[in-house]
# Entry
Amino acid sequence: MNEHDFLAGRFEEHRGHLKAVAYRMLGSLSEAEDAVQEAWLRLSRADADGVDNLGGWLTTVVGRVCLDMLRTRTSRREEPLATHLPDPVVTREGAADPEQAALVADSVGLALLVVLESLTPTERLAFVLHDMFAVPFEEIAPLVGRSPAAARQLASRARRRVRGAAPVPDPDLSRQRKVVEAFIAAAHQGDFGALVAVLDPDVVLRADQGAVLAGGWTEIRGAANVAGQALAFRSQSPSTGYHALVNGMAGVINMVNGKPSAVMSFTISNGLIVAIDILADPERLARLDLTDLTG
# Structure
């Protein structure tokens, strides 16, 4: 085995971890893959013999690449619709492969990723690397061009925002599924009261329909408002639903005329739905491989 193949093999051992870091940083599966590929290019050009901790070195490289991508993304967001739903990781229950499992470990649901989208690029980097992957602030500081104490403050600010806005999901998947099934049944039956009964009073519904559909980004808050929207959606667009895991949590794939019309993610806390995140952007849905999940 030559040196290049040996290095490539060592890199592949860390690929799943690196993609998980990049996904949390970027909320985009394709961009996360691009960031990982850039890390490989930088490794192939570096003197790897001088790297004692390859995993740690690669993690910080991916962090730096993602930070640059976030900054570029922010500077280019001149269009009115700057908010969008992060890419969902959709799998069949019990069928996630190791890489997919790493992507959504530690309850990294869409509701949490939406909150991470609201952070500044440096806050997101400090929070993701330290709080999610235990990277020391001494290693984060050079990435953000600040002292370790300042990097700690970045993570602290991000942590407060996440705790205040991101609900802690119920880890029991069977209980999640029962609540989701009750919601779907109530919507199909047109039972407004039953819908409200499974919704947290402060529930938030977020729907990303993309630029091609009128309305684009929709955000609705409050149990009564969300219940009303659910009834309107069902009456306007009859569909067939398939159970799936969306970022490791109970979700539904809606089909209309044999084609996916939406991926729905539900965040359940204390037995009630606290967040519903819906990806209904036709272009982004077309890029998801949902064939094996709707057969």
